[in-house]
User: Fold EAL domain-containing protein from Tahibacter soli.
Amino acid sequence: EAKRRGRNTWQGFNPQLARGLSDRLMIESQLRRALDNGEFRLEYQPTIDLATGRAVAAEALLRWNNRQLGELGPAQFVSHAENSGDIVRIGAWVIREACRQLREWRARGIDLARIAVNVSYRQFLNESLVDTVRAALRESALDGAALELEMTERVLIDDVPDTFETFAALRQTGVALTIDDFGEGYSALNYLRRLPIDGIKISHTFMQGIPGNRADSAICEAIVRMARSLGLNVTGEGVETEAQRQFLVGQGTPLAQGFLFSRPLAPARFAEFFDAWNRRRH
Ligand code: C2E
Ligand code: MG
Ligand code: MG
Ligand code: MG
Assistant:
């Protein structure tokens, strides 16, 4: 824009840009105190076993309620927390809180196999992650198998020498390691055989075109077939329609998540959903 108007024309105050910048500074300064102020909470979305139709697990999704900024979803603030480094502390809280919640639910007879949390690449690269996971499991007296860590392919592109060691150390705690948004990112498949990964979640971007779009259907089909022959668990994400569910069942996809089953829910609502859903005949 400035360039088009001539090379040396300094545009001066750009309200658009200034607003973007002040929003950013505002978010970053509010984020710094948000944890201590108790402004975060988690919602939970069920994972459905497609063979039985039952809800078997849950994914914790972070929400931020700030007095000035209102209610924000992770798309609006996680990248800021990554830039500032706050995501390491916030992410540790997410892991602890999800474990605590699972413990509480199990004590009340809500029989969830595991709880999944999203882990940012910045957390993954921080040496505290393994200790954080161990402490959270210990605090809530949970087996490693009760926790699943979801990471995007972003953790793989830095190819730092520690990547393999971090995966191995996490694996030693017994937690399940899953690649989230599979297929959206860097698509180097090599890591699937090098790293101790338990599962992948097919990016919702492929689900949108199912069953009408042939390319999306073919990609989903190929991902499910590959994952199953590698012995990996597969979850179809973003399932919104019955046709999409049937497509995944037809491919033998073990697990699914999406608005068709339930939106992410506050803990009390999740408990209600879980009881009602699993009492139904599937
Ligand atoms: P994700 O882990 O892939 O989570 C799925 C996102 O899709 C969630 O959005 C969920 O609400 C939404 N979703 C689920 N089912 C459907 C559906 O059927 N249709 C549509 N259109 N959307 C669906 P949300 O909660 O806004 O989270 C967005 C992303 O933010 C997550 O993607 C994850 O990458 C990140 N995130 C969430 N919580 C955390 C966290 O605690 N830590 C970190 N580092 N990232 C998080
Ligand atoms: Mg996820
Ligand atoms: Mg995803
Ligand atoms: Mg997800």
